Automatic annotation (TrEMBL):
From-to range in the entire protein, with total length: 404 to 693 of 745
Protein name (database record): Heavy metal translocating P-type ATPase
Provenance organism: Nocardioides nanhaiensis
Coiled coil: none
Family as reported in the entry's similarity comment: Belongs to the cation transport ATPase (P-type) (TC 3.A.3) family. Type IB subfamily.
Location in the cell: Cell membrane
Length: 290
């Protein structure tokens, strides 16, 4: 394409709400064969709500919530925001983030861990049967279960969920029409991921769940090794490395600065349909469509 065509493409992109880092980005957009979509905050709103707190036997739901919220107040994760809500939280010290797994900190002299059930198990906390059951029950209905624990035991389950963006199903359909295969990639568990995939029209075979941030990069690389040209759309800190690895990294303007810094394109309004507009624009600019 001529420099003039690229400049026109960039200007038209800005009108559509697409920030384009460099002219090469348009070329990659045109070639994309697979579009990998992060779930939380990309396909869903990322505005998780706390639906329920299930205490372990002998524990109090309010105490579980308060301690969990104290720890989560150090995190920006959608799960953390749901757990904190508008609660006045006790002070926490020594905050530590286990990226894509959970968080921990000291509250009232007690080391509190909050995160995926697997994180608590790895850290050697015992998980009582009623806690395991509450996790199972929440996940079976497509929700996300976060476990809080201290002093060697899981003490309760916080059940959170968010909603699919009203534009996501349409966006997936448009991307598919343009010949891109949509893949859902998430750190959340399989059943939550499948429920979202079904709602937006992604094939269950193209759902990759339970991955760590490192796993997101590895999955993008695997697709590239299979000969795919990979576009990846994400919003989180945990997506940044995968956005950089992708042939075309697309960040949401509603997401984190880290994701935008790693991406080739930014969709200013966070509307996934604009990813399809970007593909169409690049093909037109570079002369595939006339
Ligand atoms: P996604 O890929 O959908 O954006 P993440 O990789 O950020 O999800 O998170 C994956 C899972 O890790 C969450 O569903 C949650 O179970 C757990 N997790 C991550 N951060 C936190 C946190 N701050 N508090 C509790 N759980 C967390
Ligand atoms: Mg996300």
């Amino acid at each position: 394409a001529t420099p003039t065509a690229l400049m026109v493409g960039t200007g038209r992109g800005a009108q559509l709400g697409i920030l384009i880092r460099g002219p090469e980005a348009l070329e990659q957009t045109r070639r994309a064969s697979v579009v990998v979509l992060d779930k939380t905050g990309t396909v869903t709103t990322g505005q998780m709500r706390l639906l329920d707190v299930v205490p372990a036997a002998g524990e109090d739901a309010e105490r579980v919530r308060a301690l969990a919220a104290a720890v989560e107040s150090g995190s920006e994760h959608p799960v953390a925001r749901a757990v904190v809500g508008d609660l006045e939280v006790p002070a926490a010290d020594g905050f530590r983030n286990h990226e894509g797994l959970g968080v921990e900190a000291e509250v009232d002299g007690v080391r509190v861990l909050v995160g995926r059930p697997s994180l608590l198990e790895e850290q050697g906390l015992a998980v009582p049967a009623e806690v395991a059951d509450a996790v199972e029950h929440a996940e079976a209905s497509g929700r996300t279960a976060v476990v809080a624990g201290w002093e060697g035991e899981a003490r309760g389950v916080l059940v959170v969920a968010d909603e699919v963006k009203p534009t996501s199903a349409d966006a997936v359909a448009r991307l598919r029409e343009l010949g891109l295969r949509p893949v859902l990639l998430t750190g959340d568990h399989e059943r939550a991921a499948r429920a979202v995939a079904a709602e937006v029209g992604i094939d269950p075979a193209d759902v990759v769940a339970g991955v760590l941030p490192r796993g997101k990069v590895e999955h993008v690389r695997r697709l590239q090794e299979q000969g795919e040209v990979v576009a990846m759309v994400g919003d989180g800190v945990n997506d940044a490395a995968a956005l950089a690895q992708a042939d075309l990294g697309i960040a949401l303007g509603t997401g984190t600065d880290v994701a935008m810094a790693a991406a080739d394109l930014t969709l200013v309004r966070g509307d996934l349909r604009v990813a399809a507009d970007a593909v169409r624009l690049s093909r037109r600019t570079l002369g595939t469509i006339r």
